[in-house]
Amino acid sequence: MTEPQSYYWDDLTVGWTYDFGPIEVDREEVLAFARRYDPQPFHLDDEAAAQTHFGRLAASGWHSCAMMMGAMVERWQQMPGWQDQSLGAMGIDELRWRRPVFPGDRLRGTCELIERIASRTRPEMGINKWRTTLINQNDEPVLSLVSIVMQKRRPPTSTADDEKY
Amino acid sequence: MTEPQSYYWDDLTVGWTYDFGPIEVDREEVLAFARRYDPQPFHLDDEAAAQTHFGRLAASGWHSCAMMMGAMVERWQQMPGWQDQSLGAMGIDELRWRRPVFPGDRLRGTCELIERIASRTRPEMGINKWRTTLINQNDEPVLSLVSIVMQKRRPPTSTADDEKY
After folding, report:
1. Domain count, chain B
2. Which B-chain residues 34-73 have CB contacts (< 8 A) with chain A?
């Protein structure tokens, strides 16, 4: 699918997809994130993790989300106008940690626009729902979610008035 | 509601609630998280944030989730047996960033068990759904979500056999 002519809500089409990544999962960073935000044994310690369903040291699920976000923001910086036209996410639905993420993994992601909703109360914006999926180096999905994002609408132009004359 | 006799799936009751926190939101940490995982201007820069709907520098939504997790894990460490009986979260539904989280905020949270589902395929575990809410120092909700958590079932005892004799 070709790139939209702008990233205003009006110019985005259901089905449009962009890729992001890669994300290299660094062991020291996995440990540092877990120590501060998710100090459970299977995120901190090889031996403890070996005795759990993860089988070995795995990243915190919230760390996977954070790494995903970092790679998405990097991608947006290559999309001129995106950062002006996106108003941020209201929330997330259907987040699923589908497989563990391990140090040494190399992840990449896709975002697909799955739904567009005009705002009844705020005519200057619309809502977009995006399905984001992260896969690992074996093409296995590790994380998926649906984000609910506010996006500016294309500002009214003077075209209508121009046509009168 | 009184504390359950164990944290096995069988011994938890819909409506049981526990509190966690407080979480002190540190400005330097907000900036460090954003630089690594969410480098958007409103998470990085006071002046840029002042021009957005946040009004001033706000924490990344993923940082709020990570801080929530850290405070929950700390709370679980005070609940003997919890860490053995919880098998981790499969995912999250209905995550909503309801208000910005600002440096200097003091947050606290509650987790309420809202649904219990026995597993048809894995008799050794059940599924619990918890509604987690974070509020700030003004009692305003800033974050809410529903987590889907796997929990061990109480192991079979020899009681049945004992009764034969």
Report:
1. 1
2. 36-42, 53, 60-63, 65-67, 69-70, 73
